[in-house]
Write a structure and sequence with these properties.
381 residues; alpha/beta; 6-stranded mixed β-sheet; 10 helices; 24% helix; 26% strand; globular
């Protein structure tokens, strides 16, 4: 029996004799998180140490991810505070197109919040956004003024595979994290490009456009990123230059996430919260598993979706129509096993399925089961 991550509870599945369960190789137990982060800050890549980048009283904007990411924000902020005890803090929550984030799940330290300005970014509200120009792809670098009204920006986040930006984190904390929703959607059209794939950084037009946008920001930037392994835990960290430190972390992640397997006519793929909180987020599962779907095959996404579908037009058009369906082979179909009513699912580009077990039992060939699909870089053999 396999317990698939699903949502608030696991989803039990009997793989039977013909199904293969895909997982990344196991790593040693993770090291102490505070020690890992402090070590990265002590050895920044292509950058002076963080403590030397500002003077007492300077304004520092620290960017943290919103509640759609499971990240050690408290540890990041505590480590930065040890380096910068005398600065004026702004803590900006990178929400991209999601809208303001609930604060309770972020686990932000109250001692820092009491003395800091808190920005809960809303990319749909123009009042606090500033336009800095356009990238070669025509994306407007329209971003929250919190990154301009600062002497230093510290961008935090965690490096994990991202289905069209290569990996999460890096420049993404600033843009799209603090960007205007319309500008972000312009960048996201690049997800249709052949090079916009998980695990690819250089030569990825979406990633290159994000970095070109952030290069328009005149404020100095310092990066602090954790590197999350497929077990969902930070095993390493990198700090320093926005581009080169990020790439060092991405190279490390590549060695942890790459899994090769033959294509299959049935793939059952799932992941853990927050990826399975909504169909909007669960699209990451579909995009990750798509390379292993055989012609005419079925990709079954197992995601509870307790938060629903998400904005229907965005999910159908901006997410699945241009970001997922082009990755599937001819004749392939998408089904969803979830806690949503079947009629709600039928309004999407997926078909509802009542049971992953029934799909598996009815399939006569060798199926693949991928419990943490969005956490893997899947390559067909």
């Amino acid at each position: 029996m396999v317990e698939l991550p699903y949502g608030r509870v696991p989803y039990p599945l009997d793989p039977g004799p013909r199904a293969r369960v895909l997982a990344a190789p196991e790593l040693p137990p993770p090291p102490d998180l505070a020690t890992v982060i402090d070590a990265a800050l002590a050895a920044p890549i292509d950058s002076p140490p963080l403590a030397t980048r500002v003077r007492p009283g300077d304004r520092v904007t620290v960017i943290v991810s919103d509640a759609t990411r499971s990240e050690p924000r408290r540890h990041f902020l505590a480590a930065i505070a040890r380096q910068l005890p005398t600065v004026q803090w702004t803590i900006a929550i990178a929400t991209g197109t999601h809208g303001p984030s609930p604060l309770a799940p972020l686990d932000l330290p109250m001692n820092l919040l009491r003395g800091a300005t808190l920005v809960n970014h809303d990319g749909h509200a123009p009042d606090e956004l500033v336009d800095l120009g356009a990238t070669p792809h025509g994306t407007r670098m329209c971003v929250h003024r919190a990154v301009l009204d600062a002497d230093l920006v510290v961008a935090t986040g965690c490096i994990v595979p991202h289905y069209f930006a290569g990996y999460g984190a890096g420049a993404k904390a600033i843009f799209p994290g603090l960007g205007a929703a319309a500008a972000i959607r312009h960048n996201h059209r690049l997800k249709q490009a052949p090079g916009a794939r998980a695990g690819l950084v250089d030569g990825n037009p979406c990633r290159e456009d994000l970095e070109a946008a952030v290069a328009l920001l005149p404020t100095p930037i310092f990066l602090l990123n954790g590197v999350i392994a497929p077990d969902g835990v930070v095993h390493a960290a990198v700090a320093g230059d926005l581009r080169t430190a990020f790439r060092a972390g991405a190279r490390l992640a590549e060695s942890w996430y790459r899994v090769c397997a033959p294509r299959s006519g049935l793939i059952v793929a799932s992941d853990a919260l927050p990826v399975t909180a909504s169909l909007y987020q669960a699209a990451k599962i579909a995009a990750a598993a798509a390379p292993l779907v055989d012609d005419g095959g079925t990709l079954a996404i197992v995601a509870e979706c307790p938060d629903g579908i998400g904005p229907l037009d965005v999910v159908n058009d901006a997410i699945f129509r241009i970001g997922v369906l082009p990755r599937l082979p001819p004749g392939a179909s998408l089904v969803l096993v979830s806690g949503l009513p079947a009629d709600e699912v039928r309004a999407t580009l997926l078909r509802p399925a009542a049971s992953a077990q029934a799909l598996l039992d009815a399939y006569p060939g060798d199926a693949l089961i991928i419990p943490r699909a969005s956490k893997l870089l899947l390559t067909p053999t």
